[in-house]
Design goal:
Blueprint (H helix, E strand, L loop, with lengths): L2 H7 L13 H11 L12 E6 H16 L13 H17 L7 H12 L6 E7 L5 H21 L3 E5 L1 H4 L2 H7 L6 E9 L17 H4 L8
The structure holds flavin mononucleotide.
Length: about 220
């Protein structure tokens, strides 16, 4: 797939076909993603790739945590001003596509829970780093590698949704992934073949005008 096309067509996929993804395909996606930039070539990322029964068990544990209103292990940062507007903007687009009314609590809850179930994707990739690493200094690379996962996946017809919901409750991850206690989760990526008929998959999120986020220096001299 051509680079510009992949960048322009990538979008978060929140509905998947009930079709497994071969381990070999996921391996190819991750091998490509490992080419991501990292400071001093430290490559601080690690991947836990999950499917089948294990994924179902983690999803079930997440839902249990949501229903019990458990204390989250990770919370999205608070947003204000234009950042909040953008967050609300994409939520409005998604609710409209899914025909969810503002006051429809049960449907909103159902929608919220889908993220904790990895959107029922056939596989998920948890991105984490070793506990010995400084989280603030190494978090940047969690982003570089994750972005490449989302693009590399497209080469194989796969869709993705990066999600903090995947790591908001970590009881299931800790129980079923058998990682060292010190491992720090950075994000999850739901991955699978996109369901072309799932309404939310048609949403194309907006972007700020380049002029609003860019200052040019030395060009007009
Ligand atoms: C770090 C990170 C965490 C995210 N967490 C979630 C999430 O928990 N649930 C969700 O539905 N989308 C999540 N997203 C997807 C964003 O909502 C999405 O990337 C954004 O709205 C832009 O839309 P696009 O990916 O379709 O371009 C996350 C994305 C990133 C980068």
């Amino acid at each position: 797939m051509e680079l510009t096309q992949a960048i322009m067509e990538r979008k978060s996929i929140r509905g998947y076909l009930d079709k497994p993804v071969e381990k070999e395909t996921l391996e190819k996606v991750l091998k490509l993603s490992q080419r991501a930039v990292s400071a001093l070539n430290t490559q601080p990322w690690k991947f836990a790739v999950v499917t089948g029964d294990v994924l179902k068990k983690i999803a079930a544990e997440n839902i249990a945590c949501v229903e019990q209103e458990a204390e989250p292990d990770y919370l999205d940062p608070e947003t204000k001003g234009v950042y909040r507007e953008r967050r609300v903007g994409v939520a409005i687009q998604l609710f409209k596509a899914m025909d969810i009314a503002r006051e429809d609590r049960p449907k909103r809850n159902w929608w919220g829970q889908r993220g904790f179930r990895f959107f029922d994707a056939p596989a998920a990739i948890l991105i984490y780093m070793d506990g010995e690493l400084d989280e603030t200094k190494n978090r940047f690379e969690m982003g570089t590698v994750t972005q490449l996962i989302t693009l590399a996946a497209m080469e194989y017809g796969l869709g993705t949704c990066v999600e903090n919901q995947a790591i908001m409750y970590q009881k299931g991850l800790r129980e079923y992934l058998d990682l060292p206690e010190t491992a720090r989760f950075a994000a999850g990526v739901a991955i699978g073949y996109p369901d072309p008929d799932f309404p939310a998959n048609s949403v194309v999120s907006e972007r700020a005008d380049l002029a609003d986020v860019t200052t040019w220096y030395g060009f007009d001299e």
